[in-house]
Amino acid sequence: MLLTITTTRSPATDLGWLLHKHPDKVQSFDLTFGQAHVFYSEATDERCTAALLLDVDAVGLARQRRNAGNEMLAQYVNDRPYAASSFLSVALSQVFGSALNGSCKLKPELAETPLPLVARLTALPCRRGGERFLRSLFEPLGYAITATRHPLDTSFPEWGESPYFTVELSATIRLAELLSHLYVLVPVLDDEKHYWVSTDEVDKLLRHGDGWLNAHPEKEQIAARYLKRQGKLVKSALGALAVDEATDPDEAAAAQDLAEERLESRVSLHERRLATVLAALQASGAKRVLDLGCGEGKLLRLLAADPQFTEVVGVDVSVRALEIARQRLDRQRLPDNLSGRVKLLHGALTYRDARIEGFDAAAIVEVIEHLDPPRLGAFERVLFGCAKPGVVILTTPNREYNVRFENLPAGKFRHSDHRFEWTRAEFATWCEGVCTAHGYAVRIDPLGDADAEVGTPSQMAVFTREDRTR
Ligand code: SAH
User: Against a cut of 0.85, is the pTM above it?
Assistant: First the structure.
């Protein structure tokens, strides 16, 4: 069973730091079910590929098991030595444990950085669902996928197709995320398990699914298959995920929105921010526009009133906010030719969503700072890598300005649900990273009245897709 991971971000041999395995060495590890070997098939500045080869000892495994009963033959004749399965997950956690947990003592910033990565699994069983199911698992996470199905036996084409695929998954993603996705989803595709599932497995699923499983469109299937359809365990896993969901940032923070607005009201910032974003959208010439994280729909109402925009789509993760937005839009008095152009979608910006692909422009106003930092990479992939609007207009607070808000205690964020607030330099660095990774050019504008020392209260980036700048 072979898994390779390739990066092309220079210096590509940094992959060795992340995996804690030196590119010049071949290393072997004893596992309970056989041996794992790690080696690099290429290691240059431009391109580096680490290989994890598992040598599963099927005979040794069969001998370890007693009471084999009538499964005797199946214990000796099976696909375990060749196909990716939960053995791979065990090996990932034992051989690449630090990388899987996202830690890299010597180069911590590298573990936090999304890298162009390609994972290749030479024989991945996709039982019950085939390629369609494979895609439904990895595409929402932002991967580009190539899958080649293998016949059961090339000498006997009449035997038909096997469940095995050679699969390549590509994304610009943190290595820890890639490894967690493989850890959980390979056994889900295999749909078999070499050991009995216990409550420990629920913990592993929740731990390695942290930050992405909760809102995955296939989460029920994933939990059911991962836990071998053990009803009680599946229920408990889904229950734990639902608790996460119940802490809808908005539900708890509705009052906070108001507090943030009050705090900023000295400069009536929000109104100005929306006017500036509207002007930038108008100037871009966009016709079909998205408002991502539209909240209660303030910008949507402005867009709805301008005939330049022929299609307006608001997306938010909070059902409550969408309900309020709908009511407000319905109350808006518009000429007949303009009404009914605004569509609202319930969705999370950290999951690939075909419904938001192919738009001229997208606005993301005061949303990014609500995302958990480890999910930023997913957001970038979904928006700039998959949805790819021609123009992206994104605003976020300038943290340096916080010292000018008299009512804000030092070191606090403007809103209790903000996961971070960036300085001007941090925002610029993030923007540049996005441009390099996804082929956009950016201009950053100040937003609000400028203070000589700490700048403006908010900042706005206007990204233009490179094929539109030429
Ligand atoms: N853009 C609006 C609302 C900003 S408040 C305005 O300027 O008035 C932030 C909004 O982002 C909230 O409505 C919240 O529900 C939404 N949000 C937070 N995380 C999200 C996610 N992962 N996907 C989609 N929306 C999200």
Answer: no
